[in-house]
Write a structure and sequence with these properties.
- There is one protein chain.
- With 382 residues, the chain is mostly beta strands.
- It has 1 helix and 32 strands.
- The strands form 8 sheets. The protein has a 4-stranded antiparallel β-sheet, with no helix packed on it. A 4-stranded antiparallel β-sheet has the order 2-3-4-5, with no helix packed on it.
- Strand 8 and strand 9 form a beta hairpin.
């Protein structure tokens, strides 16, 4: 069925899709891994936050717990760790990496957080603040090296910002009547930024296109947000169209056209990832009180992922519809065939979780060691 002809209302056909997904069995195949990505010398934990299709990963290597000291790091496709420079400070995080190996995050100085861009060789550039702006963090980077994040204005209000590769930085502003706005993700070509804004105590989904001003994604909603966008510029999120209405998971095409995803429940649902071809992964109370991990296909049809009665969570999804997350604290992959695969743990460990998956089959996440420390890891599905 073409996407623009998809049914937005729940039907018996949608219910059958849900039930068939819930009854699917567990696969016997065993993926490769996990591979322990380790830490920098002197640190005791690590976390991988993003990965590109070449398998290059970024995240943090950390020491201590309260307080915890984070150091930005990159791992090559073979898992070799490299510390990234933090001029003006000794701590920071790297939050995203693009297909060219350029990454974005921030450095903590003595006074504030400063957005940082590291090139493929690890050389760093820090954002130069306009007067009065401070405490800024970068969250995403396009394949054209445009960085987006959020900062505090001279009036101590949160605004999104856009940082172009030529050094120009733009305050993304807010809509009339809004008290703040935040940028959360960006398309691969750098043309579409999505996020959330606040009006009278409720949030609503917004975006910025081609460097233009902030616009509210239609329809105007009582509450919601557009939290994720795929490389092609299709955004995903959840909204409530009225204060008493049900939550509506949705995607928005590049032109802003909304497509409501099937959700026959009156209870909460969250969207966590959208794949390159339009598969969407989320989590919600389809049949409360127990939560369910769920997937929508590109036509918006819902599948409840099989969980054998355990507590599930799903974090991301690839272009083939393979979702990853954890099931009762065991890293897990769910395939569109209905197969479910436990990804495995480190020797002596008792906990693992998958956070991201690439179309090339690399899954990144975390797992505990025999000493009880959380380390960044990766698995290979194919």
């Amino acid at each position: 069925m073409p996407r623009n002809a998809r049914r937005s209302a729940w039907s018996l056909g949608a219910a059958l899709v849900v039930l068939s997904g819930a009854l699917a069995g567990t696969a016997q195949a065993t993926p490769a891994g996990p591979v322990d990505l380790g830490t920098l010398p002197g640190d005791d934990s690590s976390s991988v936050l993003a990965v590109n299709e070449a398998g290059v990963m970024v995240g943090t290597s950390s020491a201590g717990r309260d307080p915890r000291h984070d150091h930005p790091v990159r791992w090559d496709a073979d898992g070799l760790i490299t510390a990234l420079p933090t001029p003006g400070g000794s701590e920071g995080q790297v939050r995203d990496i693009n297909q060219n190996g350029v990454s974005a995050g921030y450095v903590l100085t003595a006074n504030t957080a400063v957005p940082a861009r590291w090139d493929a060789q690890g050389q760093v550039t820090l954002l130069q603040f306009p007067p009065g702006y401070h405490n800024a963090t970068s969250f995403a980077i396009s394949d054209t090296d445009v960085v987006v994040g959020n900062w505090l204005t001279p009036g101590n209000e949160y605004h999104g910002f856009r940082w172009d590769p030529d050094g120009q930085v733009t305050d993304l502003g807010v809509l009339p009547g809004d008290s703040w706005g935040m940028a959360e993700d960006i398309s691969a070509d750098g043309r579409i930024i999505v996020g959330v804004a606040n009006r009278a105590g409720t949030q609503h989904p917004v975006r910025w296109v081609d460097g233009g001003p902030i616009t509210e994604l239609a329809p105007q909603s009582y509450n919601g947000g557009a939290h994720r966008i795929n490389a092609g510029g299709v955004a995903a999120g959840v909204l409530k169209e009225t204060s008493s209405g049900p939550p509506v998971p949705a995607t928005w095409d590049r032109d802003g056209t909304i497509h409501r995803l099937d959700w026959p429940s009156l209870y909460s649902v969250w969207v966590y990832g959208i794949g390159s071809t339009g598969y969407v992964a989320g989590f919600g109370y389809y049949n409360p009180p127990k939560p369910s991990a769920v997937v929508w296909d590109p036509d918006g049809h819902l599948t409840v992922l099989p969980d054998s009665g355990h507590y599930p969570d799903v974090e991301d999804i690839d272009g083939a519809g393979t979702a990853v997350g954890n099931l009762d604290r065991h890293a897990t992959a769910w395939f569109r065939t209905g197969e479910r695969v436990e990804l495995g743990m480190l020797p002596g460990g008792n906990d693992s979780s998958a956070y991201r998956i690439t179309d090339s089959g690399r899954v990144v996440g975390s797992a505990t060691t025999a000493a009880g420390k959380s380390h960044a890891v990766y698995w290979t599905l194919r």
